[in-house]
């Protein structure tokens, strides 16, 4: 048999798969394409793939036979059972040292498991985040690979060639072991949920408090997109608000206000709870989608539950209102990214992954859904200090949030007095005020726990005494009725 020509195989010819193949072919690689419904391969070969360095395979064996060794096979199929099923089908044809790359939105514990299972068989498994939607896949996505590091030298060149570039640097680097790549993609998606929620809150305030038309709001987003908020999501929001339906009215106003979700934001919030990290903004963004989907209940509630009417003269100075709102969005976004990196940091410790923060920020800088000018500053902050304890401690961000604070507070106060919900703006500010509080009311909470359940507390070092010794779990008989036996202490 002639020497195989394929540099990379790809299974799954849906939108992302087809575009990624065309992207790789544009960069001079020969890609072998396979799809479960084989007619799709023929259709692809006769149309989009025609005349390009793409080989259509009609079976798994044909796919494998056409690949150079070590074989590099990308799966772009629905996360879950389909990934396991294709791995099973591939295994009889693969040899030690071959590489399987899962480019779907797989849940990272699944990637951990697959990585371990395949390690035992001598196959290198890589779980790679792929972000950027259809256009990203075609012209340069953000790629976040992690798993078997032995695979990296064999996939680095192709991955970095087809990925997006930011200031000439590829938005693709090695993330870390096992499921780290999919973990980082999961947090990316959580942040995506947060950014989207913040933008919708700004739109809602402009519409309901400011009385702005969609075109006017589109103009505000257009302006913001030339400043610190310059980002893909602000850019598409501008375009969405300017898009009219056939009858000349904005299409967006005809869309049912009930948000869907595929689960990656929820996974991030659940993981934050598991790791004990206050990633409040992503949590609120997920819950805001849940609340929006209670549409029929909300319609009933709207006629029963009172709230303030929006006052006609709530806004004194329109420009000031827009500027304050911009600052509120910016400050909340800083908090969201600070929280996202807090989570990544904790995951690194808990799962024993050495994660590369500057590289993660760079991977998100271009190609992906959350790409923005802002991420260049985050990259800079982590390059200056890869071990930065919190993004908010970097001078650029400390200064930015200090400057944004007054507009942020004014915006939330205004929305609250006018009865407009701002879950993400508000939780960001509450986090900020909590994080910068040397003293929080958790002392009272600890007392309550000890009062009703003998759960014990510790004393502040400066208040320690013979009766209240420092560093010990103390129980007090608050009522004189309870016993002196304390419950066991443990941290969930
Ligand atoms: C990306 C996106 C993508 C995600 C969609 C839909 O990075 O390209 O994150 O992976 O699937 O944005 O997510 P939801 O359906 O959960 O909104």
UniProtKB/TrEMBL annotation:
Active-site residues, record numbering mapped to chain: 185, 192
A molecular function (GO) term: NADP binding
InterPro entries: 6-PGluconate_DH-like_C_sf (IPR008927), 6PGD_dom2 (IPR013328), 6PGDH_C (IPR006114), 6PGDH_Gnd/GntZ (IPR006113), 6PGDH_NADP-bd (IPR006115), 6PGdom_BS (IPR006184), NAD(P)-bd_dom_sf (IPR036291), Pgluconate_DH (IPR006183)
Keyword list, A-Z: Gluconate utilization, NADP, Oxidoreductase, Pentose shunt
Subunit structure: Homodimer.
Keyword NADP: yes
GO biological process: D-gluconate metabolic process; pentose-phosphate shunt, oxidative branch
One Pfam match: NAD_binding_2
Residue stretches making up the 6-phosphogluconate dehydrogenase C-terminal domain: 181-479
Family stated for the protein in its record: Belongs to the 6-phosphogluconate dehydrogenase family.
Protein species of origin: Lachancea thermotolerans (strain ATCC 56472 / CBS 6340 / NRRL Y-8284) (Yeast)
UniProt cross-references to NCBIfam families, sorted A to Z: gnd, PRK09287.1
Tagged with keyword Oxidoreductase: yes
Gene3D superfamilies recorded: 6-Phosphogluconate Dehydrogenase, domain 3, N-(1-d-carboxylethyl)-l-norvaline Dehydrogenase, domain 2, NAD(P)-binding Rossmann-like Domain
Identification of the protein by name: 6-phosphogluconate dehydrogenase, decarboxylating
Recorded metabolic or biological pathway in which this protein acts: Carbohydrate degradation; pentose phosphate pathway; D-ribulose 5-phosphate from D-glucose 6-phosphate (oxidative stage): step 3/3
This enzyme's EC code(s): 1.1.1.44
Binding site residues for NADP(+): 12-17, 35-37, 77-79, 105
């Amino acid at each position: 048999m002639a020497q195989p020509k394929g540099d990379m195989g790809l299974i799954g010819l849906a939108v992302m798969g087809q575009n990624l193949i065309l992207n790789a072919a544009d960069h001079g690689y020969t890609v072998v394409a396979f799809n479960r419904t084989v007619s799709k391969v023929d259709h692809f070969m006769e149309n989009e793939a025609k005349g390009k360095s793409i080989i259509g395979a009609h079976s798994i064996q044909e796919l494998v036979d056409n690949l150079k060794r070590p074989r590099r096979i990308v799966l772009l199929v629905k996360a879950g059972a389909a990934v396991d099923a294709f791995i099973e089908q591939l295994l009889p044809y693969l040899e030690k040292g071959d590489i399987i790359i899962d480019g779907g939105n797989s849940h990272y514990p699944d990637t951990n498991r697959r990585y371990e299972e395949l390690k035992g068989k001598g196959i290198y498994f890589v779980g790679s985040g792929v972000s950027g939607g259809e256009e990203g896949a075609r012209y340069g996505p953000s790629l976040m690979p992690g798993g078997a590091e032995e695979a990296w030298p064999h996939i680095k060149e192709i991955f970095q060639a087809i990925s997006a570039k930011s200031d000439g640097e590829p938005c693709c680097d090695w993330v870390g072991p096992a499921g780290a790549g999919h973990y980082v993609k999961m947090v990316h998606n959580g942040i995506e949920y947060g950014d989207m929620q913040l933008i919708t809150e700004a739109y809602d305030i402009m519409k309901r408090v400011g009385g702005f038309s969609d075109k006017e709001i589109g103009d505000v987003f257009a302006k913001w997109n030339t400043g610190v908020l310059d980002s893909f999501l602000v850019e598409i929001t501008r375009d969405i608000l300017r898009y009219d339906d056939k009858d000349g009215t904005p299409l967006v106003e005809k869309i049912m206000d009930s948000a869907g979700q595929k689960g990656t934001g929820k996974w991030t919030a659940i993981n934050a709870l598991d790791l004990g990290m206050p990633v409040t903004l992503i949590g609120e963004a997920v819950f805001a989608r849940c609340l929006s989907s209670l549409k029929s209940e909300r319609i009933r509630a709207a006629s029963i539950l009172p709230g303030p009417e929006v006052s006609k003269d709530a806004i004194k100075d329109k420009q000031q209102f827009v500027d304050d709102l911009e600052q509120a969005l910016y400050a909340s976004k800083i908090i969201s990214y600070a929280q996202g990196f807090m989570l990544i940091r904790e995951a690194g410790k808990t799962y024993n992954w050495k994660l590369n923060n500057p590289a993660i920020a760079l991977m998100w800088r271009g190609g992906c859904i959350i790409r923005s000018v802002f991420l260049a500053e985050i990259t800079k902050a982590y390059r200056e200090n890869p071990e930065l304890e919190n993004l908010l401690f970097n001078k650029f961000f400390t200064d930015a949030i200090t400057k944004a604070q007054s507009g942020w507070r004014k915006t939330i106060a205004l929305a609250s007095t006018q009865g407009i919900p701002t879950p993400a703006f508000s939780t960001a500010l509450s986090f900020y005020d909590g994080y910068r509080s040397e003293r929080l009311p958790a002392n009272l909470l600890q007392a309550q726990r000890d009062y009703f359940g003998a759960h014990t507390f510790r004393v502040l070092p400066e208040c320690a005494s013979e009766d209240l010794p420092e560093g010990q779990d103390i129980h007090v008989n608050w009522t004189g009725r309870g016993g002196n036996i304390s419950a066991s202490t443990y941290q969930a």
